[in-house]
Structures are given as C-alpha cells and as structure tokens.
Write the structure tokens for this entry.
Amino acid sequence: MQNLNSAFQQLTEHMSETALLVSIESLLGWDERTMLPPAAGEYRAEQITYMAGMMHQHRTDPRLGEWLNTLVAEKLDPHSDEGATVRELKRQYDRRVKLPQSLVEELARTSVLGQQAWVTARAKNDFASFKPLLEKTFKLKREAAEALGYEETRYDALLDDYEPRGRTSQISKVLADLREKLVPLVAAIGASGRKPNIDILTRQYAVVEQEQFAKHVAAQCGFDFQRGRLDVTAHPFCSNNGPHDTRITTRYDERHFPGAFFGVLHEAGHGIYDQGLRSECYGLPPGEAVSLGIHESQSRMWENFVGRSRPFWQHFYGEAQRRFSPALADVPLADFYWAINVVRPSLIRVEADEATYNLHVLIRFELEQSLVADDLKCGDLPGAWSEKYRHYLGIVPPNDAEGVLQDIHWSAGLVGYFPTYSLGNLYAAQFFEQADRDLGGLDAKFSKGEFEPLRNWLHEHIHRPGQCYTADELIQRVTGKPLSHVPLMNYLKRKYGALYGL
Ligand code: ZN
C-alpha cells in the first residue's frame, strides 16, 4: 500500500508538470491563431515545435511507465478517479512511446507551417501552393499510424487521437444508417416548394451590437466570462488554457447575423463543457473531456437544440428586435425562426444547416480515409471533392477556396477529426432527448429564459465525470442505450416536418 500511494503521488506530481507544459503550448496556439503578427510565424513554429518535443519527453518518461505498471497491477475500480487516471494514462503512455520524438516534432512543425500556407492559399484560391505541405502532412500521418499500429484500418490509429477507442467500421455503420434516412428528408424538404425569406438575415447588423448580444446570450447559457474570453479570429475555435482560462473566438460580418451568433453559441457550448470539468482534477483524466465527439455534442446542443429552437427565441427575440432595429423591426418571430432554420444544399460546412451538415462531414470522412490509405493522391483531391459534392448535395464548388480549401483541419495535421462532428450531432440528440425526459420538458423552461436546469444536468451527467467513463460507457449510462441515429432523425423529422409541411 505504501508503494502504491507513493507511485500514485509521483504520477500526479509528474502530470501536473505536464499540464503546465500543455497549457503553455495551448496559449501559444491561441495567440498564433488570434493575435500573431504575420512576420512572427516562423519563430512561433519553432516555439511550438520545442514545446511539442518537451511534452512528448514528459509523456514518455520511463518513470511514468514504471509507476503505471505498479498501479495497473492493483486493479483499481476503472470508474473511480484513481482507476480512470491509471487506465487512461496507461493507454496514452503505451501509444505515445511508439512515436519517435523526431516524428512528433516534424508533425508539430509541419502543422504550424501548413496552417500558415493554408491561410495564404485560401485567400488567393491557390490549391497548388498548398499541395506540397498537404502531401507532407499526409505522409507523416501515415508514418505515425504505422508506428502506432491498428487492428482494422490505418485510419483507426489516427481517429484514436480524437475519439479514443473509436472504430472506423462502427462510425461508418452509424453514419450509413443516418445517411439512408437523411437523404430522403433533405429531398422532401427541397421538393416541398416552401421557402423562408432568408434576406432578413443579411440586412444591417452592427458588429458592436452583435458582440454584446452574443456575449449576453452566452453568459445566460452558462459561459463564465470570469473564467473565459471571447475574441475575434478567422477560423473560430475554443481553447482551454488552464483550469480557469477558457477562450472562445468568432468572426463578425455586419451583413450576416447567423454566422457570429450561432458560432459564439457553438464555441460557448464547448467552453461550458471545459468550465464544467472539475478544476481540482485539471491535467488528469477525471478532469478532461471524454472525446471530441462528446465535446462536439455539447457545442451542437447549445448551438442547435437550444439556440435554434422556437422557445429559445420566444425568450430572446424581443431583445434582438430592440438591438437590431430596423433590421428585425418588421419581422415576426415565426419568420425569423424559419429563416435561421432554412434547409438548402450549400458549399460551406460551417454554415450548413442541421439537416445537410452531416453530408458535408461524410464527404470529408470518406476523402481522408482514401488519403490515409494512399488510394487518393493530394493532387486529385479538388476533383474528388467536387465529385462528392455533386453526388451527395447536388452542387459543385466554383473554386477551391469554397471547396477543398475551406477547412483548416488537414493543414493543421488534424486527420481523423472530421467524423467527430457527426458523432457530436448524434450524441447531442440522444443526450438532449434524455435531458428533456429527465427534466420534464425543456421547451417551457427555455421560453422563460431558464437554461440552468439543462446546464446543471449536463454538468452532473457529462462534465463532472470527466474520463471516468469512456464515450460508449457514458452514452449507455446516461441514456440507457448505445449510440444510434434514431434520436437525431426523430428530432430532424419533427422540427423540419413542421417547418416545411411534410
Ligand atoms: Zn465544435
């Protein structure tokens, strides 16, 4: 027992140092994406590469392996804080020691330079200038996957970074079930002949008002501005830089209301999860998010299931009309509600509606599997992209900036990340259905501006356990069922059936 206690104490002390390194690296990354002067990019790449090397050394320290081996032998309850700490750290350690430090550093450097090349390529609509870095990224990712090893497909090894224990075969199955039901729904909406007036959303919306309104609503939903900030960036994100430092970002367009508003709600949803984790466990698995799929379920829940619902706007619409007059002065709530829920095939994923969104994700999921398998060459990517858009959504991008260059992910080395967006929608629907049942109906609460019951429910069931349960265990434990496409399809059919008279 003496041995055991001392091993656990040494382990947690070591991990608190790792957490310092991780949070410093995260802050450098936040600054890189929001504040960095253009000429500072190369040196920042060196700073981040150096930190990545330090973190890797720390996480693969042989002493860590010894402490973990001592603790694993004790067979702790895997769902207790101690047991989950040992289980998850052992898993991460066993993965990381397989990666050579040189490859980790090369991946970090390539991801920073790749993001910088992507920003220029996207602005100039110049895929050719980005292609060499993209090829290098996928080459390094294939090397990493081979070093990590896998049971079914090479893609699984990469997916695991974002969705621990996720399997490509399982995700493909649930997304295929979803697609089978979704494509006819989108077609029926298109054939309904009904269309909202979306021009009301591109009237004049002053940026200052947009910022104040979005901050007010995010705070009402539960984002704590004493422990977080909202800033401006080209590509919105949320980053957690410490137990009380959660940063969210957005971009404003005075001629497009939904972009920033729902973007802020989305990132605030991520932020509410991060802020709901137990700060005393910061840097240890019980104080960390389960997976990106679970993380995305929190952002999509606040953005869509709450933020695009009718009761939510029954509460906030009067204030929106006051702030955005004359833009909304003559617009009835019903027209506004329909406009922010328009369904139509579009080119840009982050602006896609709830019904077509998962088709955008499916396209990327399929393409990156082919790139990782080396069945598709980077040079053929723009053509393959267009072909998939024609096939799934019936539209073709007029240029690469609105096509293959729109997302930051591959440039940043985030390969295997995209399916977590769809997992997020599926988890969100299943959790929301359960919360609605447990709390005796959320609509009446939202229409009175009461968001605390949902937030507390999320804290209790999803945020505070951290990684004490895996994603599969959590969905089963909270909803009594494994993940399925049914709750999401029921939600979409009910909501859009009513709007489009289906
Ligand atoms: Zn997100």
Notes: The radius of gyration is 23 Å. The chain has two domains: 2-151, 168-500. The mean pLDDT is 96. Residues 266, 270, 296, 299 surround zinc ion (CB under 6 Å).
